[in-house]
Amino acid sequence: MELESNSKDAPIGVFDSGVGGLTVVREIMRQIPNEKIIYFGDTARLPYGSKSKDTIIRYSRQICHFLESQKVKAIVVACNTASAQALDTLEQEIDVPITGVVKPGAKTAAEATKNGKIGVIATEGTISSQIYSQYIMKLKPDTEVIGKACPLFVPLVEEGLLIDPVTVEIAQRYLTELIDIDIDTLILGCTHYPLIRSTIGKIMGDKVTLVNPAYETARELKELLEEKHLLNETKPTLGTGQYQFYVSDAADKFKTFANSILKYGILSAKVVNMEQY
Questions:
Q1: Is pTM beyond 0.90 here?
Q2: How many Å is the Cα radius of gyration of the chain?
Q3: Has 150 been annotated as catalytic?
């Protein structure tokens, strides 16, 4: 049976530069368990955080074309850098509902802060775009938003060094200045960062609220699907391939890492050549 992209039974497309977007997938699985998911990790071309806006738009456009070819009913840009740099462009070009991870995280942080000082840790691309500041200032103009690029977190996570003295040491170096300026809310502005949340939380202390945009994004996606009458009310039957995973390189490494994050056995990840899109 050929699925239409406006059918409730059609899958949701989720993409990221690598494995970080799996934190968003994990939340979608938890919060809207009836949905089918097609995930794409651009493992051949990561990290996105240090690339130009034009390059990120080009990569994101190719991935969206691939996901549309899979008849998805909605797309989640599960990458803060791509949400910051490419989402506005993609919204003009894509025929299905599309959402990113930045707005939901910004909204939650604006609601959570008591002293009006919000920290954002993210890649260089997300920080230089100042996208979190822009959204938060619209919601709460008197807020001070302090951005801090943490470029080494992504490779540490990708290497699986989640609980490691090296990661703790790097995190302390990055986060010290945010502690010194007394922020009370910290946005984990990269989908990789929730995987080292416990380390970040220990360093920041109990008085700082950590905002995980992955959680908020799944909640917003559910609302979007309800609004568009696209929420799947019935659980897919076994053997229908509810979750499918694609990458642009290094499928075995991805599969090993994905299985450590998702408590769902991932049997395979297929490699796709993105240049054809």
A1: yes
A2: 18
A3: no
Name the catalytic one among 29, 190, 261, 266: 190
Q: Indicate if 92 and 117 belong to the same structural domain.
A: no
Q: What is the CATH number of the domain that holds 166?
A: 3.40.50.1860
Choose, from 79, 102, 145, 247, the residue flagged as catalytic: 79
> SS3 of 73, please?
coil
Contact 215, 223 (CB under 8 A): no
3-state secondary structure (DSSP) of residue 113: coil
* Chain segment 44-85, per-residue pLDDT in tens: 998 898 899 999 999 999 999 999 999 999 999 999 999 999
Together in a domain, 92 and 115: no
Taking the C-alpha atoms of residue 148 and residue 23, their distance in angstroms, rounded to an integer, is: 21
Active-site residue, 79 included: yes
Cα–Cα distance between 162 and 103 in angstroms, integer? 26
User: b/e per residue, 91-101, with b = 16+ CB within 10 A?
Assistant: eeebebbbbbb
